[in-house]
Amino acid sequence: MRSGIPSRLMAGLAMALAAVLLAGCASSIDATGAISSDPPEKMYAEADAMMTSGRFEAAAAKFEELDRSHPYSSEARRAIVLSAYAYYKAGKFPEAIASAERYTVMHPGTKDAPFAHYIIASAYFDDMRGANRDQGTTRKALEQFKILKTRYPDSSYAEKVDNRIRICEDTLAAQEMEIGRYYLKRKNYVGAINRFKTVVTEYQTTNHVEEALARLTEAYMALGVKEEAQTAAAVLGYNFPQSKWYKDSYALLQSDGLAPREDGGSWISKAWKSLPSISLGGGTSG
Predict the structure, then answer these.
(1) Below-50 pLDDT ranges, the chain
(2) What pLDDT, on a 0 to 100 scale, did the predictor assign at position 38?
(3) Most distant pair of Cα atoms in the chain: their distance
């Protein structure tokens, strides 16, 4: 008897293997997209025309096709960042972020790197939620805006982001205040203090800092930590003497026979003085 696999079975296995390989190749082509034989300059012009006519998703797809078909051409590198911008204009924020992040990884420090970071930041910024919602996108937007300011301070994009940074910080501070008030109302004073502390240490330039200092006065008084309460009120009064929050804090201290008095060793004094953007001597007495 002859051993081994019958030739008919071998032929069947070979055909099956060939089918599997062909299917794998086809799915690979589908996954990566077709490769175009058009020259890169023609594809770039077509994508640019689509952008001009407002066909942003089609433009993004064409820029990506250019990058796949001619990855070493001079047009390919800019096509990556322009595909990100086209996706952003189309409102496709995850796709815009993915393309722009790819550019920053592949081509850091190049002329279009600030543009890529600006696209990432803008996509996160436009997807921001209200203060009572998750602020993950706000934090990511703020991070990217700050990268622009620190890494590319002379770029035209860095000049555009100051107001957006303020909005991000104000939104984050507003959320901390909302949670802090929630804790304060339920007499969770330590939890409340931690939230107000974040505003005082990280978001001093926002409008929420006055209330945060007043709420610290209130929470510390409730805990009987009167020196910190007096310091919070003193810093509040020194910088915002006309604030209604200072008047409330002053009255609260007075009700216990106390007055605002700064303790230089307090974390409040140290945190406030660590940021020169707001001076302790900025206020005038009324």
Answers:
(1) 1-6, 9-32, 276-286
(2) 87
(3) 113
- Looking up tokens 């610290």 gives 216
pLDDT in tens, 247-277: 999 999 999 999 999 999 999 999 887 654 4
CB 148 within 8 A of CB 155: yes
Residue 279, in any domain of the structure: no
What's the structural domain count of the chain?
2
How far is C-alpha 189 from the chain's CA centre?
A: 30
Number of separate helices (H) and strands (E) present in the chain: 13, 0
Indicate whether 127 belongs to any domain.
yes
- Residue 75 in any domain: the answer is yes
Residue numbers of the domain that contains 250: 178-273
Q: What are phi and psi of 34, to 5 degrees?
A: -70, 150
Same domain? For 133 and 41 the reply is: yes
Closest C-alpha to 123, from 91, 149, 151 = 91
In angstroms, rounded to a whole number, what is the distance separating the alpha carbons of residues 116 and 108?
10
